[in-house]
């Protein structure tokens, strides 16, 4: 019997959410193993050796495969499970796919992550809310 895929991550992580969206789109059952980043679980020796040597989330595991990096996990899932998210095979369409993926990775994701950090997560990173960890209004606007 195949193992239900396990995602090691945090529901508040945009990278974990990227993988969960693909799993949901493909109709794949999964188990989310919550990683407490505030406690540093993602930097523990066991996490580093078993899931991701760079100490970040998410990480993926199924019966015979372990993968880290959200985009690599998503590509693996779409190729393995097919469906409407299957990458194209025509060379021009493949180039268009990777062009769009590059735009997302290079131009959309960095400012989006900064905006999410400044407006949502910054206050929780530090133990108390002080002037130096308030959202930077230049990023939020």
Automatic annotation (TrEMBL):
SUPFAM superfamilies linked to this entry: Thioredoxin-like
Q: Does the keyword Metal-binding apply?
A: no
Record Gene3D superfamilies: 1.20.1050.130
GST N-terminal domain residues are 3-85
Which is a Gene Ontology cellular component entry for this protein? cytoplasm
Q: Which domain of life is it from?
A: Eukaryota
For this entry, list what GO says about its biological process. Answer: glutathione metabolic process
* Swiss-Prot/TrEMBL keywords: Transferase
- Give the EC number(s) listed in the UniProt record: 2.5.1.18
Looking up Pfam families in the UniProt record yields: GST_N
State a single Gene Ontology molecular function. Answer: glutathione binding
Q: What is the protein name stated in its UniProt record? A: glutathione transferase
């Amino acid at each position: 019997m195949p193992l239900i895929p396990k995602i090691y991550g945090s529901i508040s992580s945009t990278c974990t959410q990227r993988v969960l969206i693909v799993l949901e789109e493909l109709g794949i059952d999964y188990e989310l193993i919550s990683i407490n980043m505030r406690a540093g679980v993602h930097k523990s020796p066991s996490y580093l050796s078993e899931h991701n040597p760079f100490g970040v989330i998410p990480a993926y595991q199924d019966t015979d495969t372990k993968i880290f990096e959200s985009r690599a996990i998503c590509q693996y899932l779409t190729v393995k499970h097919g469906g409407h998210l299957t990458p194209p095979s025509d060379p021009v369409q493949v180039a268009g796919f990777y062009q769009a993926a590059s735009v997302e990775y290079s131009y959309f994701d960095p400012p989006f992550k900064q905006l999410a950090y400044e407006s949502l997560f910054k206050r929780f990173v530090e133990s108390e809310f002080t002037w130096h960890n308030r959202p930077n209004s230049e990023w939020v606007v």
